[in-house]
Amino acid sequence: MAKVTLKVYRGDKEKGEFKTYEVPIEDGMVILDAIHYIQANIDNDIAVRWNCKAAKCGSCSAEVNGKPSLMCKTRLDRFAKDEVITVQPLKTFPLIKDLVTDVSWNYEVNKHITPLTSKDEGEWVIYQEDIERVQEFRKCIECFLCQDVCHVLRDHDKHANFAGPRFLVRTAGLEMHPKDTASRTKYLKEEGGIGYCNITKCCTEVCPEEIHITDNAIIPLKERVVDDFYDPIAKFLKGLFKK
Amino acid sequence: MTQSTVNSSPAHTTKTVRKDNWWLEPASIALGFTLFIIYATFRAFENNYYEINQYLSPFYSPKIILEFWKFSPAILVLWIPAGFRATCYYYRKAYYRSYFMDPPACGVGHGGGSSYCGETTFPFVLQNLHRYFFYMAALVVLWLWKDAFDSLFFQGQFTFSILSLVMFVNVVLLSNYTFGCHAYRHLVGGKLDCFSCTKASQTKHKVWQFVSKLNEHHMFWAWMSLFSVAFTDFYIRQVASGAYSPMRIF
Ligand code: SF4
Ligand code: SF4
Ligand code: FES
Ligand code: FES
Questions:
Q1: Ligand 4 in reach of B130 Cβ (< 6 A)
Q2: Dihedrals φ, ψ of A70, to 5°?
Q3: Which atom belonging to ligand 3 lies closest to the Cα atom of A143?
Q4: ipTM for the complex?
Q5: What's this model's pTM, rounded to 2 decimal places?
Q6: CA-to-CA dists, residue A169 to A146, A164, A227, B66, B147, angstroms
Q7: How many CB atoms lie within 10 A of CB A238?
Q8: Which domains does chain A have, with CATH numbers?
């Protein structure tokens, strides 16, 4: 029977090493299946988080050959026959054990975003063209792969100053909502730190839901911030027009 | 916001474990940009062979001749497309990756450091002025349409040459790039929260949809128009210097 070789990180954030495993391949197998095989047959104590095995819960995020991926969506037949596949935990969040990281920082960030605020208390009638943009952002499964790959967090450690792409997506969904009346541009410029994003698009490259994070969420938000803080001519003309 | 929680475990000791040729894309982009910049700088300062009969090079258009200006007239114009491209969201991505290596590719470490400011401080905070460059660049593109039409007439007679065709292709590519701009996409309708609310916003929605279509392939138009503008200038230079003919068809 054909086998695949995996190099999986085993350990915590102080001590650990990569351990090599050989796993028999079956048709349609994904990385998460291979990890489950290891757990059932070789090392029962390997820690892995998962829930749906259908790329919908966002729990099984890890780095496969250096690319942030959902383990349940990464098929083994994507790799060359003799390739040794490296599986690491996410880098951007504190490691708990093996492939499991503590992603709770994200939930803290989320609390700082003004939720949907509407003055319209009647029954909402919303046309498709008005909600289309927001629907794309609602596909997010909170896998935090985009947060993991974003170099602002990953390499520059700006957790204290930057909300990260996932929360720019959420903010975009609120800002563009036809019934929402709150403004979040001040939050974006200051606490959310949108200026730290240099639109290098890695978040878009890894998003399993194929949300156009940079083009459809971040750049339009950057332009809204420009409207409110960096466009004196438009402000002046608006002032004239109002009088 | 909350305190830093970055992971510094033995799970990530190398800059990357990627095995693909991740360096190929940033390296080719750096090479492409560098070649273009060298050629454009040479042509801007050459101050010669930019015009022959009804043909005018896009590097020198609109042609501005001022009494006191003793240098190449290209310098009076080129800062507009140069500023437009330098602040373009696509080119920003490309040169932050290729020249600044920040990051060179996804999931590839680059020494990092917490002194990173992104686009929050000078000079990169000036990227926020992109829309002003858009306004000026749009006028330049309209002018290039005029140049393309002017190239069809010599001494009052209609004429058509391969060089005119090149000029038209160039201005179409430049228009697709310019009018697929993210800032324009925002200004033309993206800034609205409700597209269906008024007659005006319904019209804006239609324009926004069209601009969004162009915007989806913004990188493609950015490169195509970069090649075509250099090629158009090169062709006109060769014709003006007598090396090539404009290849008149009729
Ligand atoms: S585009 Fe911005 S948010 Fe997305 S990964 Fe790059 S720097 Fe981070
Ligand atoms: S935006 Fe995409 S990558 Fe980011 S958390 Fe949501 S689904 Fe995951
Ligand atoms: S297990 Fe749910 S997304 Fe992978
Ligand atoms: S975003 Fe590229 S031209 Fe404006």
A1: yes
A2: -85, 125
A3: 3
A4: 0.95
A5: 0.96
A6: 10, 9, 19, 50, 43
A7: 11
A8: 3-101 (3.10.20.30), 104-242 (1.10.1060.10)
